[in-house]
């Protein structure tokens, strides 16, 4: 039996008929692929916060509106509580709610609308400080593994300080904590934090500082985006750990710090190890040391056993007997050497005694005495004659010297004339002039004279 298809049925085979589900799925894929993540600003209305933790609302402006959905993982990261009528800035992805065919935004981040320009300025500030090298990882110091004392720079009244104290007390209650109270938002907060940093460095009683505050809006966290605070953090001589706001809140202080934690509680956990972990490490170290001591004892016992076996093989009595034999042999050799040396020394002594007797000092002394007497006699005979010869020669030399002496010339009536001014000898009347003072040296004495006239020619000689 066969059936003939109607014209309507035949037409259905030629058509590409979509279901509504397929249509909405394809539309969603096209929307999400066509547009990237967007920043959208508007006013919240129809806000709904069901027990699931998700958040649904309508974002509108004067001319249009769009549905928005923010799911629980992103909702928990909000630093503020949204409300109807509030102007907000969203970072969202355009999508389609397939089951209802609603055009909507899936919100990834939301902040009050006034933060947009502030965030842009903050990004420019971060780039400027990064260019100055304030965020360089190479300059950041490691945190102490077990700090002796921790300084908390935070508000004494906020929830953050209580959370950190609870965590520190739970993890390692033996570490003392010193709180430097400061305001963490508003005018003057950044200056107060800088002053607390300077005070902590002057006191130098902490080896780790924690700068922290709880979550808040961007305006609330602006004290931690101050340039002077970034310079103060890098100038600190004590390592600094930050725990500011939530994980998405990355401030300039976080970038300049030696280590950054996402929250104040996480900063407290990074600051100190857990007591249980330390206890486990101590137990492990004790086990390792015990194993090493046990291994050392076993090795020592084995070595002692080996030495004992060697000692039995080489008994001291046998070695003593061998050494006694060696000692006896050496003693005999020593006696033989001593006897031989004694005979040799006696022979040498006899030879030297005979030579000494042959060259007796008394005989040599008599010979030297006779020689001395003969020399004395010769000296007695030659001395007076030699002395007369020397005296005659000396008198002849004295007469010769006296004949050549200028004093002899002076005794014959001559004189030496010198200028008194410079002591030069005057040889001609032309060498002086009237009024000049002269010194005349005679055979006996000197004369000081003054020239009245000077006559004679240069060539005249006496």
Strand runs, count: 13
Which structural class is indicated by helix and strand composition? alpha/beta
Separate helix tally: 13
The unreliable regions are 458-462
What is the chain-wise order of helices and strands? HHEEEHEEHEHEHEHEHEHHHHHEEE
- Please tell me the CATH architecture of the largest domain by its name: 3-Layer(aba) Sandwich
- Oligomerization: single chain
Strand line-up of the largest beta sheet: 1-2-3-5-4
What's the average pLDDT? Answer: 83
Largest sheet: 5 strands, mixed, barrel
* Anisotropy-based shape: elongated
Integer count of domains: 4
Ends apart, CA distance between termini: 191 Å
CATH topology of the largest domain, anyone? Rossmann fold
CATH class of the largest domain, please?
A: Alpha Beta
Portion in beta strands: 15-25%
User: What is the percent of helical residues?
Assistant: 40-55%
User: What's the alpha carbon Rg, rounded to whole Å?
Assistant: 62 Å
CATH H-level name of the largest domain... which superfamily? Cobalamin-binding domain
Structural key phrases:
462 residues; 13 strands; Rossmann fold; disordered C terminus; 5-stranded mixed barrel; 4 domains; elongated; OB fold (Dihydrolipoamide Acetyltransferase, E2P); 5-stranded parallel β-sheet; alpha/beta; 49% helix
Commentary on this structure:
The strands form 3 sheets. Strands 1-2-3-5-4 form a 5-stranded mixed barrel. A 5-stranded parallel beta sheet has the order 7-6-8-9-10, with helices on both faces. Strands 11-12-13 form a 3-stranded antiparallel beta sheet, with no helix packed on it. It contains 13 helices and 13 strands. The protein has 462 residues and is of the alpha/beta class. A hairpin with a 6-residue loop joins strand 1 (38-48) and strand 2 (55-60). The chain folds into 4 domains: 19-113, Beta Barrel (OB fold (Dihydrolipoamide Acetyltransferase, E2P)); 119-273, Rossmann fold (3-Layer(aba) Sandwich); 275-308; 410-450, no CATH class.
């Amino acid at each position: 039996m066969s059936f003939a298809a109607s014209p309507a049925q035949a037409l259905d085979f030629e058509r590409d008929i979509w279901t509504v589900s397929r249509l909405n799925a394809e539309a969603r894929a096209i929307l999400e692929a066509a547009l990237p993540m967007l920043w959208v600003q508007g006013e919240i209305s129809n806000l709904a916060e069901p027990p699931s933790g998700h958040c649904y609302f309508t974002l509108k402006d004067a001319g249009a509106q769009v549905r928005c959905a923010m799911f629980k993982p992103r909702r928990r990261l909000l630093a503020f509580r949204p409300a109807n009528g509030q102007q907000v800035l969203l970072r969202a992805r355009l999508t389609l709610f397939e089951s209802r065919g609603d055009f909507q935004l899936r919100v990834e981040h939301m902040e009050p609308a006034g933060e947009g320009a502030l965030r842009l300025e903050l990004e420019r500030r971060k780039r400027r400080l990064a260019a100055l090298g304030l965020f360089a990882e190479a300059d950041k110091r490691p945190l102490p593994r077990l700090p002796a004392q921790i300084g908390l720079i935070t508000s004494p009244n906020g929830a953050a300080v209580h959370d950190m104290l609870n965590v520190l007390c739970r993890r390692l209650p033996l570490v003392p904590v010193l709180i430097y109270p400061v305001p963490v938002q508003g005018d003057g907060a950044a200056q107060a934090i800088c002053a607390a940093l300077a005070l902590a460095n002057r006191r130098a009683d902490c080896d780790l500082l924690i700068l922290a505050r709880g979550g808040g809006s961007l305006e609330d966290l602006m004290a931690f985006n101050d340039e002077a605070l970034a310079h103060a953090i890098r100038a600190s001589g004590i390592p600094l750990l930050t725990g500011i706001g939530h994980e998405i809140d990355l401030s300039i202080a976080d970038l300049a710090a030696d280590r950054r934690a996402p929250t104040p509680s996480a900063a407290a956990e990074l600051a100190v190890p857990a007591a249980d972990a330390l206890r486990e490490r101590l137990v492990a170290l004790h086990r390792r040391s015990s194993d090493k001591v046990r291994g050392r004892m076993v090795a020592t016992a084995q070595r002692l056993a080996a030495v004992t076996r060697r000692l039995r093989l080489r008994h001291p009595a046998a070695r003593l007997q061998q050494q006694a034999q060696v000692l006896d042999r050496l003693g005999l050799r020593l006696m033989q050497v001593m006897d031989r040396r004694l005979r040799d020394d006696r022979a040498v002594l006899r030879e030297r005694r005979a030579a000494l007797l042959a060259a007796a000092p008394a005989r040599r002394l008599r010979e030297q005495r006779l020689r001395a007497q003969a020399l004395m006699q010769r000296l007695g005979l030659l001395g007076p004659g030699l002395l007369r010869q020397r005296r005659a020669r000396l008198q002849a030399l004295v007469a010769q010297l006296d004949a050549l002496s200028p004093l002899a010339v002076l005794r014959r009536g001559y004189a030496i004339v010198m200028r008194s001014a410079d002591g030069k000898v005057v040889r001609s009347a032309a060498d002086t002039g009237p009024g000049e003072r002269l010194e005349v040296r005679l055979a006996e004495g000197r004369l000081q004279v003054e020239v009245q006239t000077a006559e004679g020619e240069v060539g005249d000689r006496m």
